[in-house]
Every structure is written in C-alpha cells, then in structure tokens.
Amino acid sequence: MGGLTLLCAALALLAVAGGAIPRPEEAARMARFVLHNCDWGALATLSAQEGLRGRPFANIFSLSDGPPGPFGGSGVPYLYLTDMEISVQDLQINSNASLTVSLAQTPYCKKHRYDPQNPLCAHIIFCGSIVKVNDSEAGIAKKALFTRHPEMESWPKDHNWFFAKFNITNIWVLDYFGGLKIVTPEEYYSVKP
C-alpha cells in the first residue's frame, strides 16, 4: 500500500510540474487542476459605471486557491480586493460574476503549441458571486494569496484591501473537442487537482 501512495504522490507532483494533466473524461479534476495552476483570471462583472451600466466588463485579477504544489489547493478562488477598483464597485451593486482561468498562462500550452483558443489548452469558466471572507477564513485566504503573490503584502494599506472568494455556483470546462462539459460544485469540490 505504501508503494501505491508514493506512486500517487509522484504522479501528482509530475502533473503540477506541467507533465500529465487530467484526462478529458475527468472534467471536475481538470477544473481543479487548471484553477490550482493559474495565478490570475479574467473576472467579468455587470458594469455599474456611467456609460457602461448593465454591460459586461472583464478585468484581470490575481487569484489563488492555495499555496503552489500538488496538495495546496482548496478549489476556492481567493482574491485580494479594494473598493477603489472599478470591478469591485460593480460587485457592490451586483455581486454576480464569472471567472475564466486558462492553461494558456502556464508553460503547458506553449510547450504543446496550442493556441489559447484551442480546446486542448484547457480553460474553465466559473459563474457565481464574490463575497468577503469571514474572519475565520481570512487566514486561509491570506496564506493562499500571499504565498503566490508576495507583492500583495506590501500594497498600500490606505487602499483598505480585503480578502474575498469566488462563491462557485456553476462550472463549465472546455478541455477537449466536442463542446463544454458541465461540472457541479459538488463534483468539483469532491476531487483533488
């Protein structure tokens, strides 16, 4: 049994290092894998800004679901936000959003010469809402974000930064030909990347 555990750990390390990724039939695992290996994503909100009110508005945000490595990911996308940011102002009016992450930001797609739009360069679309984390979860969010984005710790204190998470309600996976795959949050959280 110990040999099997060691083999699984070695395979997990290889996967995170950009070697093997989950198979196309493992859509929930692929969603976790992609999120855990991405440092940023495109967050789309409904704009509350004059001249754009009600229109889609996408912006890039650093994120993390936990420290790098094969066993560091919780699957929860954490963000470090300030009310001064335009998308956060949108979220104050309507907290619903979508978040897209793609292996295009990792070496994987370049290594295989996959265009970011190629389905083999997997990307995940999460729908849900942004919520501030409570005090008991703030330490988890801080560790998740500051281990991947150490610069955040020195951002100006007068910007009133706060930790938030993307509360996932729907998940779509595009990682192979034939269209999107739907993964439920329950399926997503029940697997490891």
Automatic annotation (TrEMBL):
Keywords annotated in UniProt: Glycoprotein, Secreted, Signal
Lineage: Eukaryota, Metazoa, Chordata, Craniata, Vertebrata
Entry annotated with the keyword Glycoprotein: yes
Gene behind this protein: Creg1
Domain CREG-like beta-barrel: 22-190
Signal peptide: 1-22
GO cellular component: cytoplasm; endomembrane system; extracellular space
InterPro entries: CREG, CREG_beta-barrel, Split_barrel_FMN-bd
Subcellular location as annotated: Secreted
Family per similarity comment: Belongs to the CREG family.
PANTHER family according to UniProt: CREG1 PROTEIN, PROTEIN CREG1
UniProt-recorded name of the protein: CREG1 protein
UniProt-listed Pfam families: CREG_beta-barrel
Top-level taxon of the source organism: Eukaryota
